Amino acid sequence: MGKLDYHNLWRGFIMGTTEVVPGVSSGTIAVVIGIYEQLIASINGLSTRKWKQSILFLAPLVIGIFIAVFSIANLIDFLFEHYTAQLFYLFLGLILGVLPFLVKRVRVKQTFTSKHYAILALSFAIIIAFGLWQGVHSEEAESLLPSITTGDYVAIFFAGWVASSAMLLPGISGSFILLITGYYRTIIDALSNLHFPVLITLIAGIGVGVLITSKIVHFFLQRFPVGTYAVVIGMVAGSGIIIFPGIPLDFAAAFTSIVAFFVGIIIALLLGRVEHK
Predict the structure, then answer these.
(1) Local structure of 169: helix, strand or coil
(2) pTM greater than 0.85
(3) How far apart are CA 36 and CA 44, in angstroms?
(4) What is the pLDDT of residues 136-179, one digit of tens each?
(5) Alpha-carbon torsion angle 173, 176, 178, 179, nearest 10
(6) Is the dihedral of CA 135, 76, 26, 100 positive or negative?
(7) What is the DSSP string of 52-104?
């Protein structure tokens, strides 16, 4: 009865683009462009009698996401090699740029109580703790492909599972989860070089996570929307501190980093102004 929604190709491309960089969540983009509720409902519908309708909605979206992820991975890998500071300042701009959208979305001044601010502070602290732990294990920030182990494959599977939760929750980037677990560069390297064992492991983790976590995320967003957004805002704010790479000592690097920071903010704000269809 239904038919493919080809508009979801470009929607998926935008979502996939944002998931490659540890800044804006594809879940946030889904909210911004007005398909978030339908996205969650379609994922949940895969296990019901309405699975055909779900596939018609999800298929072009997934194709758009895959096109974006594979086409942008090489660029991200290049920037990591040659413009690390500028890239992280771009990430930082994306992260901070999405905060006003999230605050407005949940109407913080009208809906937040002391309990919600406490939840926000706790989620902020948890993300900072994650970042400090990642800093201790900074050697994992490099690609592990030359010497990847069985244990790494297991970790990548579960990292994909956790990242899928972040992808479905507005405000938290799945790639940011990969970043703080130390596997982001490995995944980018795998995408650039089509290292299928790593990619299949990651996709398996994401697939399992999406099917299970979508129901949990849907439940909390439906039953406790304000509290859920308190968690989201705290995590996004905390991630900005983790992403901050320090101030480059070289003038040219510092200047271009500042430019990249404002470009990130502008991109996030422009995405936040996209009209709901």
Answers:
(1) coil
(2) no
(3) 12
(4) 444 445 666 777 888 889 989 988 888 887 777 765 677 777 87
(5) 170
(6) positive
(7) HHHHHHHHHHHHHHHHHHHHHHHHHHHHHHH-HHHHHHHHHHHHHHHHHHHHH
